[in-house]
Amino acid sequence: MARRILWASLALTPVAVLGRFVFDFGDTALFVIAALALVPLAWVIGESTEHAAEHTGAGVGGFLNASFGNAPELIIALFAVANGLPDVVRGSLTGSVVSNILLVLGAAMVAGGDGPVDARSLRWQLFTVIGAVGVIAIPSALSWGSSGESHSFYLLSLPVAVVLLVAYLVVTVRNLRIHRATERVEPSSSAWSLTRSLAVLSVATVATALVSEVLVHSLDHFGKTVGLNEFFIAAVIVAIVGNAAEHGGAVVIAHRGNTTLATEIAVTSSMQVAVFVTPAVCLLSWLAGQGLPLTFRVIEVVTMAAAAAFAAWVVWDGRSRRWEGFVLIGVYGLTVVAYYFA
Q1: How many Å is the Cα radius of gyration of the chain?
Q2: What is the number of domains present in the chain?
Q3: What is 130-154 written as a DSSP string?
Q4: pTM of this prediction?
Q5: 95: CB partners within 8 A, 6+ apart
Q6: What CA dihedral angle connects 23, 27, 28 and 34, to 10 degrees?
Q7: Which domain holds residue 241?
Q8: Which residue has the higher pLDDT, 190 or 261?
Q9: With CB atoms 3.0 to 4.6 Å apart as the test, which of 20, 226, 239, 260 could cross-link to 96 if both were Cys?
Protein backbone atom coordinates (compact mmCIF):
# COMPACT_ATOMS: atom_id res chain seq x y z
CA MET A 1 0.00 0.00 0.00
CA ALA A 2 2.80 2.42 0.91
CA ARG A 3 4.48 1.84 -2.44
CA ARG A 4 1.23 2.58 -4.28
CA ILE A 5 0.81 5.82 -2.35
CA LEU A 6 4.38 6.85 -3.21
CA TRP A 7 3.92 6.06 -6.90
CA ALA A 8 0.63 8.01 -6.92
CA SER A 9 2.32 10.92 -5.13
CA LEU A 10 4.61 11.40 -8.12
CA ALA A 11 1.66 13.23 -9.68
CA LEU A 12 2.54 16.14 -7.38
CA THR A 13 5.64 16.82 -9.48
CA PRO A 14 3.79 18.12 -12.58
CA VAL A 15 1.32 19.93 -10.28
CA ALA A 16 4.19 21.82 -8.64
CA VAL A 17 5.87 22.67 -11.95
CA LEU A 18 2.64 23.74 -13.66
CA GLY A 19 1.59 25.71 -10.60
CA ARG A 20 4.86 27.63 -10.74
CA PHE A 21 5.20 28.28 -14.47
CA VAL A 22 1.65 28.08 -15.87
CA PHE A 23 -1.07 28.65 -13.28
CA ASP A 24 0.77 31.07 -10.94
CA PHE A 25 -0.13 29.43 -7.63
CA GLY A 26 0.52 31.38 -4.44
CA ASP A 27 3.96 31.00 -2.89
CA THR A 28 2.70 29.30 0.26
CA ALA A 29 0.77 26.70 -1.75
CA LEU A 30 3.80 26.16 -4.00
CA PHE A 31 6.03 25.57 -0.98
CA VAL A 32 3.71 22.92 0.46
CA ILE A 33 3.14 21.14 -2.87
CA ALA A 34 6.83 21.16 -3.81
CA ALA A 35 7.89 19.89 -0.36
CA LEU A 36 5.41 17.02 -0.60
CA ALA A 37 6.47 16.28 -4.19
CA LEU A 38 10.09 15.80 -3.12
CA VAL A 39 9.15 12.87 -0.85
CA PRO A 40 8.21 10.35 -3.59
CA LEU A 41 11.07 11.63 -5.78
CA ALA A 42 13.50 10.90 -2.95
CA TRP A 43 12.00 7.42 -2.66
CA VAL A 44 12.42 6.79 -6.42
CA ILE A 45 16.06 7.92 -6.30
CA GLY A 46 16.68 5.66 -3.31
CA GLU A 47 14.92 2.76 -5.03
CA SER A 48 16.86 3.09 -8.29
CA THR A 49 20.15 3.59 -6.45
CA GLU A 50 19.65 0.42 -4.47
CA HIS A 51 18.99 -1.51 -7.69
CA ALA A 52 22.08 0.04 -9.30
CA ALA A 53 24.14 -0.95 -6.25
CA GLU A 54 23.14 -4.56 -6.90
CA HIS A 55 25.39 -4.34 -9.96
CA THR A 56 28.06 -1.90 -8.76
CA GLY A 57 28.40 -2.45 -5.01
CA ALA A 58 27.73 -0.06 -2.13
CA GLY A 59 30.65 2.27 -2.83
CA VAL A 60 29.73 3.05 -6.42
CA GLY A 61 26.04 3.04 -5.47
CA GLY A 62 26.64 5.72 -2.87
CA PHE A 63 28.66 7.72 -5.39
CA LEU A 64 25.84 7.51 -7.95
CA ASN A 65 23.21 8.56 -5.43
CA ALA A 66 25.27 11.52 -4.23
CA SER A 67 26.10 12.61 -7.77
CA PHE A 68 22.53 12.52 -9.02
CA GLY A 69 21.22 13.98 -5.77
CA ASN A 70 23.67 16.92 -5.78
CA ALA A 71 23.04 17.90 -9.41
CA PRO A 72 19.87 19.87 -8.52
CA GLU A 73 21.76 21.69 -5.77
CA LEU A 74 24.40 22.86 -8.24
CA ILE A 75 21.69 24.15 -10.58
CA ILE A 76 19.81 25.87 -7.75
CA ALA A 77 23.02 27.53 -6.52
CA LEU A 78 23.74 29.00 -9.95
CA PHE A 79 20.19 30.36 -10.16
CA ALA A 80 20.63 31.95 -6.74
CA VAL A 81 23.94 33.54 -7.80
CA ALA A 82 22.23 34.95 -10.88
CA ASN A 83 19.55 36.44 -8.61
CA GLY A 84 22.21 38.20 -6.51
CA LEU A 85 21.97 35.96 -3.43
CA PRO A 86 25.59 34.99 -2.64
CA ASP A 87 24.97 34.64 1.11
CA VAL A 88 22.09 32.27 0.43
CA VAL A 89 24.32 30.15 -1.80
CA ARG A 90 27.15 29.91 0.73
CA GLY A 91 24.68 29.28 3.55
CA SER A 92 22.98 26.48 1.63
CA LEU A 93 26.35 24.87 0.81
CA THR A 94 27.34 25.01 4.47
CA GLY A 95 24.01 23.62 5.57
CA SER A 96 24.25 20.85 2.98
CA VAL A 97 27.66 19.68 4.22
CA VAL A 98 26.54 19.78 7.86
CA SER A 99 23.07 18.26 7.38
CA ASN A 100 24.37 15.32 5.34
CA ILE A 101 27.06 14.49 7.90
CA LEU A 102 24.90 14.92 10.99
CA LEU A 103 21.21 14.71 10.09
CA VAL A 104 21.22 12.25 7.19
CA LEU A 105 23.96 10.01 8.60
CA GLY A 106 22.25 10.08 11.98
CA ALA A 107 18.81 9.31 10.54
CA ALA A 108 20.28 6.45 8.50
CA MET A 109 21.84 4.96 11.64
CA VAL A 110 18.57 5.28 13.54
CA ALA A 111 16.61 3.68 10.69
CA GLY A 112 19.15 0.92 10.09
CA GLY A 113 20.04 0.11 13.67
CA ASP A 114 23.10 -2.01 14.35
CA GLY A 115 24.96 -2.83 11.17
CA PRO A 116 28.29 -2.60 9.34
CA VAL A 117 29.72 0.50 7.65
CA ASP A 118 32.80 0.89 5.45
CA ALA A 119 34.89 2.74 8.03
CA ARG A 120 37.93 3.18 5.79
CA SER A 121 35.92 4.80 3.00
CA LEU A 122 33.91 7.01 5.36
CA ARG A 123 36.97 8.18 7.32
CA TRP A 124 38.83 9.01 4.11
CA GLN A 125 35.92 11.12 2.84
CA LEU A 126 35.32 12.86 6.16
CA PHE A 127 38.99 13.82 6.42
CA THR A 128 38.66 15.17 2.88
CA VAL A 129 35.81 17.40 4.06
CA ILE A 130 37.99 18.67 6.93
CA GLY A 131 40.82 19.38 4.47
CA ALA A 132 38.44 21.18 2.11
CA VAL A 133 37.18 23.37 4.94
CA GLY A 134 40.78 24.18 5.85
CA VAL A 135 41.47 25.33 2.28
CA ILE A 136 38.23 27.33 2.11
CA ALA A 137 39.17 28.98 5.42
CA ILE A 138 42.03 30.83 3.69
CA PRO A 139 39.94 33.29 1.60
CA SER A 140 37.23 33.21 4.27
CA ALA A 141 39.53 34.35 7.09
CA LEU A 142 40.96 37.13 4.94
CA SER A 143 37.44 38.42 4.32
CA TRP A 144 36.38 38.50 7.96
CA GLY A 145 35.98 42.09 9.06
CA SER A 146 35.51 43.37 5.51
CA SER A 147 33.20 42.89 2.54
CA GLY A 148 33.65 39.37 1.22
CA GLU A 149 31.99 40.12 -2.11
CA SER A 150 34.81 42.11 -3.72
CA HIS A 151 36.31 40.99 -7.02
CA SER A 152 39.73 40.50 -5.40
CA PHE A 153 38.30 37.83 -3.10
CA TYR A 154 36.77 36.09 -6.11
CA LEU A 155 40.16 36.04 -7.84
CA LEU A 156 41.69 34.61 -4.65
CA SER A 157 38.97 31.94 -4.59
CA LEU A 158 39.72 30.67 -8.10
CA PRO A 159 42.96 28.75 -7.27
CA VAL A 160 41.25 27.43 -4.11
CA ALA A 161 38.42 26.09 -6.28
CA VAL A 162 40.87 24.41 -8.66
CA VAL A 163 42.72 22.74 -5.76
CA LEU A 164 39.43 21.41 -4.39
CA LEU A 165 38.36 19.98 -7.75
CA VAL A 166 41.71 18.21 -8.20
CA ALA A 167 41.39 16.81 -4.68
CA TYR A 168 37.87 15.61 -5.52
CA LEU A 169 39.12 13.70 -8.56
CA VAL A 170 41.95 12.08 -6.58
CA VAL A 171 39.72 11.07 -3.65
CA THR A 172 36.92 9.78 -5.88
CA VAL A 173 39.23 7.64 -8.04
CA ARG A 174 40.98 6.24 -4.97
CA ASN A 175 37.72 5.50 -3.19
CA LEU A 176 36.19 3.73 -6.18
CA ARG A 177 39.34 1.63 -6.55
CA ILE A 178 39.08 0.61 -2.89
CA HIS A 179 35.50 -0.53 -3.38
CA ARG A 180 36.30 -2.32 -6.63
CA ALA A 181 39.06 -4.26 -4.90
CA THR A 182 37.06 -5.22 -1.81
CA GLU A 183 33.46 -5.61 -3.01
CA ARG A 184 32.11 -8.64 -4.81
CA VAL A 185 28.60 -8.12 -6.16
CA GLU A 186 26.07 -10.55 -7.54
CA PRO A 187 22.72 -8.93 -8.44
CA SER A 188 19.60 -10.71 -7.28
CA SER A 189 17.03 -11.99 -9.75
CA SER A 190 14.61 -9.21 -8.78
CA ALA A 191 17.10 -6.38 -9.37
CA TRP A 192 16.51 -3.91 -12.18
CA SER A 193 19.03 -3.84 -14.98
CA LEU A 194 21.80 -1.28 -14.58
CA THR A 195 20.53 0.59 -17.64
CA ARG A 196 17.01 0.86 -16.23
CA SER A 197 18.35 1.94 -12.83
CA LEU A 198 20.46 4.74 -14.33
CA ALA A 199 17.60 5.85 -16.59
CA VAL A 200 15.20 6.15 -13.65
CA LEU A 201 17.89 7.96 -11.65
CA SER A 202 18.35 10.48 -14.46
CA VAL A 203 14.64 11.21 -14.89
CA ALA A 204 14.11 11.50 -11.13
CA THR A 205 17.07 13.88 -10.86
CA VAL A 206 15.69 16.18 -13.54
CA ALA A 207 12.29 16.16 -11.84
CA THR A 208 13.93 16.87 -8.48
CA ALA A 209 15.79 19.84 -9.97
CA LEU A 210 12.53 21.32 -11.29
CA VAL A 211 10.64 20.79 -8.04
CA SER A 212 13.56 22.11 -5.98
CA GLU A 213 13.58 25.30 -8.05
CA VAL A 214 9.88 25.72 -7.38
CA LEU A 215 10.37 25.25 -3.67
CA VAL A 216 13.39 27.58 -3.45
CA HIS A 217 11.41 30.20 -5.40
CA SER A 218 8.74 30.14 -2.69
CA LEU A 219 11.13 29.97 0.27
CA ASP A 220 11.66 33.73 0.58
CA HIS A 221 7.93 34.34 0.95
CA PHE A 222 7.67 31.42 3.35
CA GLY A 223 10.56 32.74 5.45
CA LYS A 224 9.00 36.18 5.73
CA THR A 225 5.67 34.65 6.65
CA VAL A 226 7.15 32.66 9.55
CA GLY A 227 9.71 35.33 10.49
CA LEU A 228 13.00 33.52 9.74
CA ASN A 229 16.20 35.30 8.67
CA GLU A 230 17.95 34.75 5.35
CA PHE A 231 20.92 32.80 6.74
CA PHE A 232 18.75 30.36 8.68
CA ILE A 233 16.55 29.75 5.64
CA ALA A 234 19.63 29.06 3.50
CA ALA A 235 21.61 26.96 5.97
CA VAL A 236 18.70 24.88 7.24
CA ILE A 237 15.63 24.91 5.01
CA VAL A 238 17.26 25.28 1.57
CA ALA A 239 19.99 22.81 2.51
CA ILE A 240 17.52 20.15 3.66
CA VAL A 241 15.22 20.69 0.70
CA GLY A 242 18.07 20.71 -1.81
CA ASN A 243 19.26 17.36 -0.44
CA ALA A 244 15.85 15.78 0.04
CA ALA A 245 16.73 13.04 -2.44
CA GLU A 246 19.76 11.87 -0.45
CA HIS A 247 17.93 12.34 2.86
CA GLY A 248 15.01 10.16 1.90
CA GLY A 249 17.04 7.68 -0.12
CA ALA A 250 19.56 7.02 2.65
CA VAL A 251 16.85 6.50 5.28
CA VAL A 252 14.81 4.17 3.05
CA ILE A 253 17.88 2.09 2.19
CA ALA A 254 18.99 1.95 5.83
CA HIS A 255 15.52 0.85 6.93
CA ARG A 256 15.88 -2.09 4.54
CA GLY A 257 19.02 -3.16 6.37
CA ASN A 258 21.70 -1.86 4.01
CA THR A 259 23.58 0.36 6.47
CA THR A 260 26.76 0.26 4.38
CA LEU A 261 25.12 1.85 1.33
CA ALA A 262 23.02 4.28 3.41
CA THR A 263 26.00 5.69 5.32
CA GLU A 264 28.03 5.84 2.13
CA ILE A 265 25.30 7.98 0.52
CA ALA A 266 25.23 10.45 3.42
CA VAL A 267 28.99 10.95 3.70
CA THR A 268 29.70 10.87 -0.04
CA SER A 269 27.06 13.53 -0.61
CA SER A 270 28.64 15.79 2.00
CA MET A 271 32.10 15.25 0.55
CA GLN A 272 30.86 16.04 -2.95
CA VAL A 273 29.27 19.30 -1.80
CA ALA A 274 32.47 20.40 -0.04
CA VAL A 275 34.98 19.36 -2.69
CA PHE A 276 32.99 19.42 -5.95
CA VAL A 277 29.76 21.45 -5.80
CA THR A 278 31.30 24.37 -3.89
CA PRO A 279 34.28 24.95 -6.22
CA ALA A 280 32.14 24.20 -9.29
CA VAL A 281 29.67 26.92 -8.28
CA CYS A 282 32.60 29.29 -7.76
CA LEU A 283 34.11 28.59 -11.19
CA LEU A 284 30.77 28.62 -13.04
CA SER A 285 29.32 31.61 -11.21
CA TRP A 286 30.72 34.05 -13.77
CA LEU A 287 28.34 32.47 -16.29
CA ALA A 288 25.49 33.55 -14.01
CA GLY A 289 26.57 37.17 -14.22
CA GLN A 290 28.84 37.58 -11.19
CA GLY A 291 31.61 35.66 -9.46
CA LEU A 292 30.94 33.92 -6.15
CA PRO A 293 33.88 34.28 -3.72
CA LEU A 294 34.47 31.38 -1.33
CA THR A 295 34.23 33.70 1.67
CA PHE A 296 32.33 31.81 4.36
CA ARG A 297 31.49 33.20 7.80
CA VAL A 298 33.20 32.01 10.98
CA ILE A 299 30.21 29.94 12.12
CA GLU A 300 30.04 28.25 8.71
CA VAL A 301 33.71 27.22 8.69
CA VAL A 302 33.61 26.02 12.31
CA THR A 303 30.41 23.97 12.02
CA MET A 304 31.50 22.23 8.81
CA ALA A 305 34.85 21.17 10.28
CA ALA A 306 33.35 20.17 13.65
CA ALA A 307 30.57 18.10 12.03
CA ALA A 308 33.06 16.15 9.90
CA ALA A 309 35.37 15.51 12.88
CA PHE A 310 32.49 14.33 15.07
CA ALA A 311 31.12 12.01 12.37
CA ALA A 312 34.60 10.52 11.83
CA TRP A 313 34.74 9.65 15.52
CA VAL A 314 31.30 7.98 15.32
CA VAL A 315 32.08 5.73 12.32
CA TRP A 316 35.66 4.96 13.35
CA ASP A 317 34.90 1.41 14.60
CA GLY A 318 33.06 0.37 11.42
CA ARG A 319 29.66 -0.15 13.04
CA SER A 320 26.36 1.70 12.86
CA ARG A 321 24.42 1.93 16.12
CA ARG A 322 21.02 3.47 16.71
CA TRP A 323 22.12 5.48 19.77
CA GLU A 324 24.96 7.02 17.75
CA GLY A 325 22.41 8.12 15.18
CA PHE A 326 20.39 9.87 17.86
CA VAL A 327 23.56 11.62 19.07
CA LEU A 328 24.32 12.87 15.55
CA ILE A 329 20.78 14.18 15.15
CA GLY A 330 21.04 15.87 18.55
CA VAL A 331 24.27 17.59 17.54
CA TYR A 332 22.57 18.76 14.36
CA GLY A 333 19.75 20.18 16.45
CA LEU A 334 22.26 22.21 18.48
CA THR A 335 23.82 23.41 15.22
CA VAL A 336 20.42 24.57 13.96
CA VAL A 337 19.95 26.55 17.18
CA ALA A 338 23.36 28.18 16.61
CA TYR A 339 22.36 29.07 13.04
CA TYR A 340 19.14 30.60 14.30
CA PHE A 341 20.95 32.94 16.68
CA ALA A 342 23.67 33.67 14.11
Answers
A1: 19
A2: 1
A3: HHHHHHHHHHHHHHTTS-TTSHHHH
A4: 0.80
A5: 234, 235, 236, 238, 239, 240, 339
A6: 70
A7: 2-341
A8: 261
A9: 239
